[in-house]
Amino acid sequence: MIFYSILSDHERLLQYLRDLKIIDGIRNCQQCSKTMKLSKNHAKVDKQEWRCDYCLRVESIRINSIFEKSKLSLRMQMEILYFFATDIQVFEVEKFTDISHVTVIEWYKKLRQLCKLFLEKDPISLGNAEGSVVEIDESLFGKKKGNIIKGPANRTHGFSV
To answer: How far apart are the C-alpha atoms of 39 and 88, rounded to whole Å?
Structure first.
């Protein structure tokens, strides 16, 4: 799979994120407005940082990106993003990545919020004609005792126009 070959090579992952404009490819210093240079720094988790040769300001390569405030490696964050996009459930992500339940939940919440903002900004329409009615339904199948679902539950989604 191409995605995992990108994740396995840190330099390739950084270039991939730059190509998609998820992280900056060029950056101007906030302090002096000069163009910053990308410098290697193996002490940093990302192994690179933005450095201004004029005023000596240093910034993370994650600045102004979805990755900015996370302590996870870019690889782990991209794995969570991939699992979210492929509709993998939180407990499965925890199992695959050894990332804590709380962290995965927070990331899924952040990604759902980004999807919401994107769709509010650029809505898509469902249906093929003006006045079409789109019904969306979600069902949970399992054995129920009282108000508690017992055993494995199967969630299904469906919509019709």
So the answer is: 36
Instruction: State the DSSP string of 75-132.
Output: HHHHHHHHHHHTT--HHHHHHHH---HHHHHHHHHHHHHHHHHHHHHS----SSSTT-
Helices and strands per DSSP (H, E), number in the chain? 5, 5
Q: CA-CA distance, 37 to 54, in Å (whole number)?
A: 10
Encode pLDDT of 10-64 as tens digits.
889 999 999 999 999 999 999 999 999 999 988 888 888 999 999 999 999 999 9
Domain residue spans of the chain: 1-63, 70-124
What is the reported pTM? 0.71
